[in-house]
Amino acid sequence: MDSKTTIYRKTDENYQLKMKASRVLFSDIDKKFANMPFTLRTLDNEQKARMGVVECVKHKLLEPYSILYDKDNELIAQFKFTVLLMPSGSHKITGLSTFDPSICESEYSIDKDESLKSILAKGLTNKTAKKKKKSKSSSTTATTNDAGDSSNVAAAATSEKDGSSSNNNK
């Protein structure tokens, strides 16, 4: 099973290409695909593209995607989903809603490794408590008395100095 890959992705490397076919190919890729993967079939001249891609891969301007093979008469399961990584935690937005492990059988088990069990028990969500910011008011601070009323400490202090009470204003 010796197949040649036809899917590539542009990297961030810089190199001055020597062959004209390589330069034309690389500028085509830069215009059409930017950093997205592409196949050689989508290019205008596939023969010149195959010739130019050799120099680009040699100098690491393009990264080839390897071809994956599976064993004959083996079952393959593939689960895909999309996760948003947010400061409040991760959110699964596409894919299967639940995974039922009873429908799959495996010869491997993680029952013996306690560290793996503890990691899997944590789950995907990251719950962090938000810290409250302290206000920067320097002269007036609010307090609550036993009755549950908010009163201004600075105003109470000035009324006590004057000898008057805020409740005795008639």
Automatic annotation (TrEMBL):
<dbReference type="InterPro" id="IPR036388">
    <property type="entry name" value="WH-like_DNA-bd_sf"/>
</dbReference>
<dbReference type="InterPro" id="IPR047113">
    <property type="entry name" value="PA2G4/ARX1"/>
</dbReference>
<feature type="region of interest" description="Disordered">
    <location>
        <begin position="125"/>
        <end position="170"/>
    </location>
</feature>
<comment type="similarity">
    <text>Belongs to the peptidase M24 family.</text>
</comment>
<feature type="compositionally biased region" description="Low complexity">
    <location>
        <begin position="137"/>
        <end position="151"/>
    </location>
</feature>
<protein>
    <submittedName>
        <fullName>Uncharacterized protein</fullName>
    </submittedName>
</protein>
<dbReference type="InterPro" id="IPR036390">
    <property type="entry name" value="WH_DNA-bd_sf"/>
</dbReference>
